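ingest -> validate -> predict -> emit
validate: passed (alphabet ok, no gaps, 391 aa)
predict: started
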Amino acid sequence: MPRPPAELPPEPALPGGLAFEQKPDGYRALLFAGPGGHAHLQSRNGTDLTPAFPEIAAADRALRVPLVLDGELVATAEGRLDFDQLHQRALRRGADARLAARDHPAYLIVFDILDTADGPLLDEPYRARRALLEEPFAHGVPADPFVLCSATIDRATAEDWLNPAWGAAGIEGIVVKGLAQRYQPGRIKVRAHASAEAVVAAVTGRVTAPSTLLLGRYDARGRLRFIAQTAPLSATARREVGGPAGGRRPSLPGRRQPPLGAAPLFRRLGRPRGHRPPAGPAEHRRGVRRGHRGRCRPLPAPATRSQAERAVRAELEALESEEAAAALRRAQAERVEADRPGGRGGGAAPPEGSRGGRGGTGDRRCGAGAGAGSRGPVPDRGPGGRGRHGR
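emit:
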């Protein structure tokens, strides 16, 4: 049962006074060594780890002494304990496991002895079990990959082990035991900790009552990088984070702002040239908006900002379609007027023999008439040139 960080229990908390052991970052494991060189490595939940760590089993078989050891299985990388490397080792079997044992050997940091050839030691006090454990290590047996776990009864030394510098080496805290206490599978852990400032970049759950916080820090280039996710917040912490004083919601990334009015919205989306912005949110709420050329039509009030933006975009497309259609109608009317005999305009007649002049008396498709009915001078396209309606 973990205690608050960096808080050691008082001396009378456990029988016989307190003993402190380093807590390395690894897998809790039991090692069973039997007669005949048989060895079995087992995790805390009963998983057989012997095939994944053949170097541990081979070293134990060399002892040829029946015993049961309790310890922490660890792996190293770049001069420190590396839990990720240990996890990768635990997934390998067969030839891959033997190759990994050669390149990245594992170690068993032993902190208790539970059984020997003379019988079980579970009911013996911790002080007696520790003395039996230290005796063979003092004579160099067992040797690598077995390591004796550091222990002390000095409170100041234990507090020093909680220094973040030990955490950087892979020691995540200390374990507290009673000197007169019998063996207990559960342990009192005191974890080392270090404080650092971080930015709340996002949340999980609702903004008003977040479940967890996603934290980030700025790198050397000024970019925000994700570093950690908090544990689930308590109900009190959710209220404190999600409901600041004054009832105002925190301005967190990803939160939608209130719907914009017509002018700010068009500044963001870009207003088409020659069109007036549609009505604002007030007319949306009334259900009627004044459209192009004074016409009114009902429009359902948008419930969200995204619906409002879609409605405005749809209206812009409709206005553009209406304007394009009106321009097309005007161009068709002018063309018909120009092609009609006796139409508008005046100017010189097209050269004799040319084809395709628009307007003028006579054939609509041939420029044989006088220039009185043409819209203006028609450029000479040369002999047999084709006009707009020439075939």
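The radius of gyration is 43 Å.
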